[in-house]
Structure prediction request, 391 residues.
Amino acid sequence: MSERNQKTFGGPAIFSYGFRPFFLVAALFATGVIPVWMLIFSGGLDLDSTFPSVDWHIHEMLFGYAAAVIAGFLFTAIPNWTGRMPKRGWPLAALLGLWLLGRIAMSGALGVSELAVMLLDCAFLGAIVVMIFIEIIAGKNWRNLMVVAPVSLLLLSNVLFHIEIQTSDSGDYGRRMSLVVVIFLITLIGGRVIPSFTRNWLVKNGSDLRPVPFNRFDGVCLLSGAVAMGIWVLSPEIWISHVFLVVAAVLHLVRLARWQGIAVWRSPLLLMLHVAYGFLPAGLLALALAGPSVGMHLLGIGAIGGMTMAVMMRAAMGHTGRELEAGGWLSAAFSLVVLAAIMRGLFGSIDVFGVSGLWIAAALWSMAYGVFVVQVGPWLLRPKAAPKRVS
Prediction:
């Protein structure tokens, strides 16, 4: 992929391609929002949000952080799918404004009604759905039209989240549906990019191993995951939900093994994608056997946090003309996310040397994204360094 016609864009580099503004604000938001949440959780801060504090935390990680990464990924990938010019300049600035307005509205700072908060918050995803639909139709890229469906479901899950809060003061279904839609996007997109990048690396390095290409088994994995998580959204406590989650976890673990992840251990940037995907079956299994808190945090921090960070690293390197090498600092950043997932998922309720596991996990997460901002942020703000070919 290449950042085409970069020289013809006379505006700020940050608005020259979709990944730039949204990866930057996502990383900055991820760095700061967890300390804010911990202050709220500990009673040191009180937001005037229309959402209860726990629901605000979950909502902002999914519709603040994850939605920004999804937008950056889609507005970078779609021009390569369709052959059309990327969105740049004022459309990106306007979208960024919608995202920021949603975050301010969700904090309660605007002092508007619950309905107004919902409209302001949902406007960002609504605009994305419309824009990607128009781009894919205009480019006659029918194969990728299916991406519109999960993004539309993400928008609907946000609407459901708000309606639940307005009517029952608890977003139980909205929480679960939102998480499930983002996880499904990871199974869908991860299932395309991970084996593709792995195959390219193995060919380049002279290995005879190859990831198994997408076939019916992958379709079964996607379907099983969708069914299992769908049942969990509706009835997380019934036994059949646990059975389906275990089956889906096993199938996705087998799917991951078919991608030859062990063979790419010498490429940390590529290995990150495999490790992050590994949190998906681990999280599904934990939902079935260890309870919702463990499972949701393994999925939220490990699968979503790990996968999005790895994708942002790779896209930022490739599209800003840098070698696809993680280096020590970015490898450390990803490792901190992995440690945060393990600490929060498995040890969040205990103290380690007198320090709460929750605070340790929060610190690990914020340090990870702080390192990311320091390392990758300057790349996103500056023009492309030099043309590089991305495998």
In short: The first strand starts at residue 351 and ends at 352. Residues 6-381 form a domain with the Cytochrome C Oxidase; Chain A fold (CATH 1.20.210.10). The chain is about 75% helix and 0% strand.
